[in-house]
Every structure is written in structure tokens, then in C-alpha cells.
Write a structure and sequence with these properties.
Helix content is about 40%, strand content about 15%. The chain starts with 7 loop residues before the first helix and ends with a helix. Residues about 310-314 have low confidence and may be disordered. Strand 1 and strand 2 (about 55) form a beta hairpin. It has helices at about 10-15, 20-30, 75-90, 95-105, 105-120, 185-195, 240-255, 260-275, 285-295, 300-305, 305-314; strands spanning about 45, 55, 60, 130-140, 165-170, 175-180, 200-205, 220, 230, 235. The chain is built from 11 helices and 10 strands. The strands form 3 sheets. It has a 5-stranded mixed sheet with strand order 6-5-4-7-8, sandwiched between helices. The protein has a 3-stranded antiparallel sheet with strand order 1-2-3, with no helix packed on it. By secondary structure, it is α+β, with helices and mostly antiparallel strands. It has 2 domains: about 70-125 and about 265-314, no CATH class; about 130-260, Nucleotidyltransferase, domain 5, CATH 3.30.420.
Length: about 325
């Protein structure tokens, strides 16, 4: 039987230092030899010390970090791999405070590191097909739990107007996709679904009439929850609703809060873990999948915090 999980002790044995991690990541990124990330050439590359390479075609110096989520990070690569391991194996996620303790960095560095990893989690643009269960949920705190100066007085937690809608789509026996929306209007729902679900597929939804506009694109079956109907033959949305159960436990119990600005990345983290956390996938296969997605996913601290947007506005 295939051993799907490795222990923390085993991971430390595999990657005891920066060099062993660098060699491993290089083999995953450049399977057929080192390729210059600037000109995409692999001829006339000179190997230098400490993982540096020199491209004699475009005359650029680079490392395996260049053009990836590791770029310009001072965190050693074996700590990056351990952070990835913790994120892909923790069912409900890992907080920046806990990660900081685990890898020996500041909480601010751990938060930035997790934000970068989540950015790579969303790098999947394949469409879902077959039977796809679709449902929406709302993420955000209750008005009654907010400070008085931040409450909307006419909304005491019973409305969804101050929460962020998130649309989830789960392929029966396949992948899950989820994304925050600006609204749940029929146009917004249609745009999100048609982008992520292949035309001609069967969609299972609840009684929300916003999905009816897509009846000419998909075979549409709905469940009427208001009438206590949850399963009718092969029609159900139970699988996508189970995704919300795990996601909300993680957001509430581990992260406590996810702002609108960062919610998309948190959602990507949970869907990545669902998609690549299958029983048949080993821990290292999950890390390898994340490493593959890290290429071309540069994210600066200013981009993550929104400082670049403020600079452009000023």
C-alpha cells in the first residue's frame, strides 16, 4: 500500500538545510536542465557558487528563486518547504503565529510567507465538467460582534449585506473551485459559472433563481432547501456544502478573520488542499504540485498589503 504521509521528522531528514532544499526545488523546476527565467534559453549557462547561474545569452544572473514566489525572500528554502508541508497537511490551515514558532521567523514574515503560498494555490484555470454542484455562502463577522463605531446600525447580523459572497463549484468526484463575488446577481453568477464550468455540463444548485439564466448553457437540476429537500435521486448540493463546513471551521477557528482584500487567497488555500489532498496523493506530491504552481507567481509585500495601490492612487 502506498504511504501517503511523511512525518515531520522525515521531512527534516530530507531537507536539513538550505542546500538540500535548493537542489530538490531545482530538480522540480528544471527537469531537463537549467533554463534562464529571463530569455528561456538553456544553452550557454554558467554555474556559479551558492546556487547562482549566469546566462551568457542575455547576460543575466539568476537562481532557482528568480521568477517564483521565493524571489527576494530571505527565508531559507528548507523553511519554505516546511511551511508548504504544514499548509498542505493541515486540514484547516495554520496560523501565522503558529508557523512563526514552527520555522523560527517573526509573525510578520510568516504572514507574508503564507500570503505568497496562497497566491500559488490559485494557479489552476482548468474547467470543471460532468455533474457540478454549485452553491454560495457568505463570509464575514456578525454586526452584533463588531465595535460600536464599526456597526451598521440597521443591520444587526441578520442580513448578508456586510458579508462577502463566495461561490463554490464542486465537480462530482473531481475538483473544487471557489471564488469571492461582488454580488450574487444572475449576471455575476453566470459569469463566474461559465468561466469555470464547461458548457453542456450538468449543474446542481439550490432554489436560487439566479441560476435559471444558465438553463440554455447547462442541464440544470435544483434542490429546494426551503421545503426541506436535500437529495432527490442523483441531485444534491451536499458535497459543496461540506466544503463550506471545512472552510468556515478553518476561517473561524484558525484564522479568526479574513478581510475582503485577502479572502480570495484564503479560499484558494482551502480549495487547493481539497483538490491535492486526496488520499492517493503523498505529502511530497502535494508539495511538488505547489512548487509547480509557484513559477511566475511573484508577490511583493506592497502588493499583498495594498501599499502599491495606495502609491498609485496618490
Amino acid at each position: 500500500m502506498k504511504n501517503t504521509a511523511i512525518s515531520t521528522f522525515k521531512l527534516f531528514e530530507m531537507f536539513p538545510d538550505q542546500e538540500t532544499a535548493r537542489v530538490y526545488i531545482e530538480k522540480r523546476r528544471w527537469k531537463d536542465g537549467v533554463v534562464c527565467p529571463f530569455c528561456q534559453k538553456k544553452e550557454n549557462i554558467t554555474t556559479r557558487k551558492d546556487g547562482y547561474y549566469r546566462c551568457n545569452v542575455c547576460v543575466e544572473t539568476f537562481t532557482v528563486r528568480t521568477g517564483t514566489l521565493f524571489e527576494r525572500s530571505h527565508v531559507p528554502l528548507h523553511k519554505w518547504l516546511y511551511a508548504m508541508y504544514l499548509l498542505v497537511t493541515a486540514r484547516k490551515g495554520i496560523s501565522s503565529m503558529q508557523l512563526a514558532k514552527e520555522i523560527g521567523v517573526t509573525q510578520k514574515t510568516a504572514w507574508f510567507l503564507l500570503g505568497r503560498i496562497r497566491e500559488a494555490c490559485g494557479n489552476d484555470f482548468s474547467q470543471l465538467s460532468g455533474i457540478v454542484e454549485i452553491d454560495e455562502t457568505y463570509i464575514g463577522g456578525l454586526e452584533k460582534n463588531k465595535h460600536a463605531d464599526k456597526k451598521i446600525q440597521h443591520n444587526q447580523g441578520k442580513s448578508t449585506m456586510t458579508k462577502t459572497p463566495v461561490l463554490g463549484m464542486r465537480e462530482r468526484g473531481g475538483k473544487t473551485r471557489a471564488l469571492p463575488l461582488t454580488s450574487v446577481s444572475s449576471i455575476t453568477l453566470a459569469n463566474a459559472v461559465t468561466w469555470n464550468v464547461k458548457e453542456g455540463s450538468t449543474i446542481n444548485t439550490d432554489e436560487n433563481s439566479g441560476y435559471d439564466a444558465m438553463n440554455h448553457i447547462y442541464k440544470h437540476e435544483s434542490i429546494n432547501h426551503s421545503h426541506k429537500e436535500y437529495v432527490r435521486g442523483n441531485v444534491t448540493t451536499n458535497s459543496i456544502e461540506s466544503v463550506w463546513a471545512v472552510m468556515k471551521r478553518g476561517l473561524n477557528g484558525v484564522y479568526h478573520h479574513a478581510s475582503r482584500k485577502h479572502l480570495g487567497r484564503y479560499v484558494n488555500e482551502f480549495t487547493f488542499r481539497l483538490n491535492d489532498g486526496k488520499v492517493e496523493n503523498t505529502s511530497m506530491e502535494r508539495i511538488d504540485s505547489l512548487l509547480q504552481r509557484s513559477n511566475g507567481k511573484r508577490l511583493t509585500y506592497d502588493d499583498l498589503t495594498g501599499n502599491n495601490e495606495e502609491k498609485e492612487a496618490s
